Amino acid sequence: MKSPARIAPAAATAASPAFAEVALAVKRAGKPAVKGSVKPEVEAAVGLPGPGPTMTLWLAVVLLVVLFAGGLFGYDQGVISGALPGIKATFSLSVLMVQVVTSWVTLGALLGSLAAGELGDRLGRKKTVLVAGALFTLGAVVQYFAPDVAVLVAGRLIVGAGVGVAAVGAPLYAAEVAPAGVRGRFVSGYQLAITVGIFLAYLVNAQMSSSADWRLMLGAAAMPGLALFTTALLAPESPRWLMMKKRRADAAAVTHRVQPGVAVEAQLDAIAAALHQQTKAVSWGGVFRREWRRPLMIALGLAVFQQVTGINAIIYYANQIFASAGFSTEASRMTVTTWAIGGVNVLATLIAIAFIDHVGRRRLLLVGLVGMGISLAVVGGAFRFIGPGVAGAAAARTSSAASTAGVVTVIALVVFIASFAFSLGPVTWTVINEVFPAPIRSRGVALATAANWGSAWLVSQFFLSLVKAIGSSFTFWLLTLFCVLGWIWIFYRVPETKGQTLEQIQQMWKTAP
Ligand code: BGC
After folding, report:
1. 9 with 270: CB under 8 angstroms?
2. Does the CA dihedral 356-361-364-368 come out positive or negative?
3. Which of 105, 318, 345, 480 is such that its CA lies 20 to 30 A from the CA of 49?
4. Which numbered atom of ligand 1 lies nearest the CA of 194?
5. What digits encode the pLDDT tens for the residues 15-29?
């Protein structure tokens, strides 16, 4: 029998590369191609559902990088609402400047994510994360010392750029370095860290928002920013990027360190063959080529559906939604927002981490969207049939019907957040980072991330206007409609990618319709 470890080079050029070859080799030997029937190192190399890689020190470093990057993303996004009252008092801001201080992080993130597509290819994945760490730290320090509002806005823009670069660089790095069998978990770890960051920000907001400590709230991000930078310095470069740069010896050394015991040469041969199949130099325009339209549509579609189904409308406006549903004091609103939204968001993400590499991406997405759609429909119903809606917050505070609406709304929003957190939250980032072939991966991920930020901005900008124009109920029902459309689109267009190497996923676009 041909040694399975030597099969991968030829396998990678076949239609369904490594799996088919290994299956064939095993069949010849008269054994079924099931889990555990080939050597573990071969399973790991080609992405079969083997016993799972061991957690090495180097993999732990990769995980730490991802956790710091996600945590900073979440913290910076969540802390501004608590810092705003203090900033307004210090600089006596106009309404326009309040919006600028709030939203220029998103603007910076949009620019940062596009730049990261270029940086990822030119500097490498590791250095892109280093740039994100440096930007976070610099932006936090600038905000802490800001003598006037212009410098503060510059600091917001720098932090935003850090958020954008990290949002592209960190999951891409994790997806490329993590072994196939745990890739979903690694990228979901990034989402978990985002939720922990948002939760911490809620806690900090609850503790400090009445004081003028906004400098501390914003400046505190310098510490984890520095931690991200230092950890990324220690972390190994992505072997897939090294292979793109024709540095095979370095790629072999890294693969060996990160996954000792894996069939290194077989894995690198598979990567090399996949790279060889693609046209070399790819420009930004190349990302839109016909042959790569499917992964591009999948990534963009998930990025947009993740936002238009309303997650950030709920995260940003939870306080107002709860006010209109009958939570009359600021303290009660802060408590319910922190625990029902922030806490549940963290806990339910753990479900995704446990299941994403076993039950798969598709099932999580489809089940999660059902939960999101039903809960949004219920919130719409609660506002229509029990309470007066987001716009009628003041009236609601005194109405007894509002307390019924309050209970129903809290329960429904908990279901919504939990359903998002085990599905569209982590799975979107996982799939975006695994569907693109190597030559366009960095730029494709950057485009999808920018689309995600653009949609997030649109939703948060227009949510309240929409509520005013068509009322709370119809606004929530519109979000329900997006859940239904998302479900149908995912059902027909998004294939399962669990357990396959990035190179095997690349082959799917050739074979699938
Ligand atoms: C989304 C963010 C959102 C967060 C909530 C992320 O996956 O991209 O927009 O705020 O999840 O946990």
Report:
1. yes
2. positive
3. 345
4. 12
5. 333 333 333 333 333
Q: Residue 20: is it exposed, middle or buried by C-beta count within 10 angstroms (0-12/13-18/19+)?
A: middle
Structure tokens at 228: 């991200």
pTM of the predicted structure, to 2 decimals: 0.80
Q: Indicate which atom in ligand 1 lies nearest the CA of residue 195.
A: 12
Look up residue 490 and give its amino acid. I
Contact 188 CB / ligand 1 (< 6 Å): no
Protein residue with least CA distance to atom 6, ligand 1: 425
Between the CA of 431 and the centroid of ligand 1 the distance, in Å, is: 15
Ligand 1 pocket test, candidate residues 187, 195, 196, 306, most atoms within 8 A of CB: 306
pLDDT, tens digit (0-9, with 9 covering 90-100), for 134-188: 999 999 999 999 999 999 999 999 999 999 999 999 999 998 888 888 888 888 8
Residue nearest to atom 8 of ligand 1 (CA): 425
- Give the mean pLDDT of 266-293: 78
Kindly state the helix (H) or strand (E) to which residue 158 belongs, with its residue range: helix 149-177
Q: What angle do CA 447, 450, 452 make, to 5 degrees?
A: 110
